[in-house]
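This section describes the prediction task in plain terms. A model, or a person checking by hand, is given the sequence of a single protein chain and must write out its three-dimensional structure as a string of tokens. No templates, partner chains or ligands are provided. The sample shown here is typical of the held-out split.
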Amino acid sequence: MVKKEMIAMILAGGQGSRLGVLTSKVAKPAVEFGGKYRIIDFPLSNCINSGIDTVGVLTQYQPLRLNSHIGIGIPWDLDRNVGGVTVLPPYEKNTDTEWYTGTANAIFQNLAYMESYNPEYVLILGGDHIYKMDYEVMLDFHRANKADVTIACMPVPMEEASRFGIMITDGKGRITEFEEKPEHPRSNLASMGIYIFSWKTLKESLIALKDQPGCDFGKHILPYCRDRGNRLFAYEFNGYWKDVGTLGSYWQANMELIDIIPEFNLYEEYWRIYTKGDIIRPEYISESGAADRCIIGEGSEIYGEVHNSVIGPGVTIQKGAVVRDSIIMRRSTVGAGTKIEKAIIAEQVRIGDNCSIGVGEEAPNVFKPNIYAFGLATIGEDTVIPDGITVGKNTVISGKTVPEDYENGILPGGGALIREDGDIL
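The expected answer:
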């Protein structure tokens, strides 16, 4: 049997429903980020930079693009004969077939995979956060404290603490209590959803709770371990960590990359972020084009103006178009004379000539006001917008739309136009 000191399990099966149409065709970890990367690149790069060469990626929702992006792990040096990266979808068993029903249930269903490496420690990660972390330092902390479970935590503003799982410690890092999204939090030390388990503890708790519906680490496994007298410790992390779970936080995290001195630096040599690199031509800015304070992906062609924006690979901005404070993902096209202000435009979108996107006054979105907010215009993957259309703020458009879909050529602020199978929802 091959033995590994620590293996990593990345939970990458979630939809990320708060990202709305951005995740209607892809899992959240496969959403593009920073003009080049996908969100899954960050935990994968953290693993290889931390010396972890055995990684299981648990997929479920819309896995095709995620699977093809990961491939056999070449960009992360995870194409190994022993270990490397393995994609782990739910699979048919001789007794029954079930989807992953909770974070811990997903790990339980892959006990055989973990057991094949007989690890001393198992690192559990989410696949949908933007951060850099040396997991080897966290493991040193785990060993030094003779911990059974170590939970990565970070301080958050007290007024935001009720959104998180909150840890209460004894002053030496040992967790005495924890509260899942408490109404009146007694601490501001929030769980990041990153755990190191000693293998014996993880295996025993997963088997003990295997029949728990929707078995989850925060709700079930951690309380079980605490009640059994296991040693639980909080590892405090003070670096950059961003949950890009809403359109607002996703937009903000992208915009932070183009600060003069970005808080989250993608250009450090000693902790590189790796990704699948397509062989495509360099970006091109024409004589009529202009760009300032931008990230512009490879293969993009800029004939108009781009200001304070993140442009993905293979994007075309036609002559006379002006893009400001926006994210435009790969292989999308912005027509001549079109003006775009504070928008998130997904992959392979075609916006016609002389359109205005993200203009006018804000109004609550008529479809999902809690998702399509933040003053953003959000346009889903493969969408087509005809020439001459005006689109307001807090709006969403998805699908191949035609002029007749827009009353007087306008989708007003707070409007929603989502086409599925030819029907407008």
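For orientation: Helices lie at 41-49, 64-70, 103-108, 111-115, 135-144, 199-208, 217-227, 247-256.
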